Amino acid sequence: MSKQKFLKSLIRKQPRDLLLVIGTGVSAAVAPGIPALCSWRSCIEAVLGAAEQLEVLHPGDVAEFRKKVMKERDLLVVAHDLIRKMSPRTGDTKPNFFQDCLMEVFDNLEQHIQNPVVLQSILRLMERGTMVLTTNYDNLLEIFGQQQGKPMESLDLKDKDKVLQWARGHIKYGVLHIHGLYTDPCGMVLDPSGYKDVTQDPEVMEVLQNLYRTKSFLFLGCGETLRDQIFQALFLYTVKNKVDLEHYMLVLKENEDHFFKLQADMLLHGIKVVSYGDCFQQFPEYVQDLTAQICKEKSPDADQVDSTTLLGTSCVDCAKRKLGESGTDSPKRVKQSDMPTLE
């Protein structure tokens, strides 16, 4: 295999300038023995299986939801409907049987960590100031981090004080679960209406949106995240001038036409789509190598421009302006291939 190429604009980011968005692909790589971690479809199917075993959902409803899982393209809608079906008729999401089913599905997670390479890479970045949020219900990262002696903390959006601390960079090993956590009895959330207190709180929304404006988000294992209503409500639809931002998404390149269309579409959101390979098994090694590139001291050959780096003169102007504003970096380090941090 040829030597892996990385976008210079990405590997020259400081870890503290990145925010990792972790999706189901990370859990699937770490614990392949739990199908429910691999995709929304697998998760819903596993929850339905648990609901059947625990007898908390009418067999007719189980059959109906299984049909929906096969036909429906937007699985987040199916998951949301399933939570509602398992909740009181008052419309309140707590208490409900959905957590019981997830706890059944995700039982003894720590015993299923088979390939911790991606988690090791994430922790390495967190040590150096990278922030982490996730759409996942599982706490594999926190479990693994605690095993490594790190003071990991699981956060959710309902704890305003904690969210503000995290967003301001005061909880180094905090992981923000924007859908909640399967161990938390306060309820899962898949719809922005469940977070009205958050989305209507100007202070919280301002600090969260400021992250999208000032950090480079790096999406790992995130197939569905940009279609996720909560992520959209918090970041995508509320931040203006997204095309001026610089975020990154690692994806599997199964189909060239689809990949390059996705690339073009995502640039409108300020997101650069990057392929980690044409096979999911390449994902952990790519993340490991990418992390090593970001964390290492810059070597002399890092100044060479490779074919994956496409830049215009405006980027150089931005970099110069940024240097002029900060006055901290030496001008001699600015090269055609350097990208500014986000403004």
Report the count of strand segments: 7
Helix fraction by DSSP (H/I, runs of at least 4): 40-55%
**Spatial arrangement of strands, main beta sheet:** 3-4-2-1-5-6-7
Reading the helices and strands in chain order gives: HEHHHHHHEHEHEHHEHEHEHH
Pfam family, one: SIR2_2
Region (Disordered): 321-343
Biased composition (Basic and acidic residues): 321-336
Organism: Taeniopygia guttata
Question: What are its keywords?
Answer:
alpha/beta, globular, acetylation, phosphoprotein
Structure description:
The chain has 343 residues and is α/β, with parallel strands linked by helices. The chain has 2 domains: 1-33 and 113-296, Rossmann fold, CATH 3.40.50; 35-111, no CATH class. It has helices at residues 8-11, 24-30, 40-54, 59-71, 75-85, 98-105, 117-127, 140-147, 160-167, 196-199, 202-214, 229-236, 256-267, 283-295, 313-326; strands spanning 18-22, 131-134, 153-156, 174-177, 216-220, 247-252, 271-277. The chain is globular.
Write the layout of secondary structure elements.
Blueprint: H1 8-11, E1 18-22, H2 24-30, H3 40-54, H4 59-71, H5 75-85, H6 98-105, H7 117-127, E2 131-134, H8 140-147, E3 153-156, H9 160-167, E4 174-177, H10 196-199, H11 202-214, E5 216-220, H12 229-236, E6 247-252, H13 256-267, E7 271-277, H14 283-295, H15 313-326
Parallel strand pairs: 1-2, 1-5, 2-4, 3-4, 5-6, 6-7
Helix pairs in contact: 3-4, 3-6, 7-8, 7-14, 9-11
Family: Belongs to the FAM118 family.
Biased composition (Basic and acidic residues): 321-336
Region (Disordered): 321-343
